[in-house]
Amino acid sequence: MNRGRSPRMEAKGRAGLIEHFGAVEDRRIQRSKRHKRIEIIVIAIGGVSGGADDWVAIAAFGQAKREWVATFLELPNGIPSHDTCNRVFRRLDPEQFQASFLRWVQAVFHRTKGQVVAVDGKTLCSSSNQAEGHGAIHMVSAWANENQLVLGHVKVAEKSNEIPAISARLKLLDISGCIVTVEAMGGQKAIAPAIVAGGANDVLAVKENQATRSHEREELFDSAERIN
């Protein structure tokens, strides 16, 4: 989990987690709180970062790393169970959590000039529910190549496309000095200005079925070859 990171950077990341997620509202009844909300959030993020993909694995991570976790969390009642983690997260405000997560990532994200940030859209497997009339869930993510880090996700609204989601994601990211790549679906007029406005350079994919852009691309490269 901490491969290639200095102790100072690790400490900064831990402190940042507590600082940035401290504002996420706790909706539990006061008398039922045996574990602090922030401790559950930190253990969950640590578990997922270490490869945990369900609540049982997250709780197991907490137990396995209890000695380390106790160096920066109080844990008055030990490590929370997987059921407790599940219940707490189900009551969190997802927008508050996402905003806090993004602030934390931006705080620990070491941006380097010329780093590639890839913006891409994906469809979540098995996310459709035809019986209830729900289509598959589409997400737009931003991936920092050098850091091997997802900077955030945005869900594409139903009956919409990826363009508004890409624009929304770009507005939330500090991409100055980076090179932002976007797949062909995002190669629209609204996207390039948003990237440039953020102080980044853009690389937009163009498919053959985008006739005008494809022709302009070929002319540009032909012109460059003639000049050289």
Outline the structure in words:
This protein has helices at residues 7-21, 37-49, 55-64, 66-69, 82-90, 94-108, 162-172, 191-197, 211-227; strands at 116-123, 138-144, 149-155, 179-182, 201-204. It folds into 2 domains: 9-100; 112-226, Ribonuclease H-like superfamily/Ribonuclease H (Nucleotidyltransferase, domain 5), CATH 3.30.420. The model is unreliable at 1-9 (pLDDT under 50). Strands 3-2-1-4-5 form a 5-stranded mixed beta sheet. Strand 2 (138-144) and strand 3 (149-155) form a beta hairpin. The chain has 9 helices and 5 strands; from the N terminus they run H-H-H-H-H-H-E-E-E-H-E-H-E-H. The protein is α/β, with parallel strands linked by helices and 228 residues long. Helix content is 44%, strand content 13%.
Name some characteristics of this structure:
228 residues, alpha/beta, Nucleotidyltransferase, domain 5, 2 domains, 5-stranded mixed beta sheet, 9 helices, 44% helix, elongated, disordered N terminus
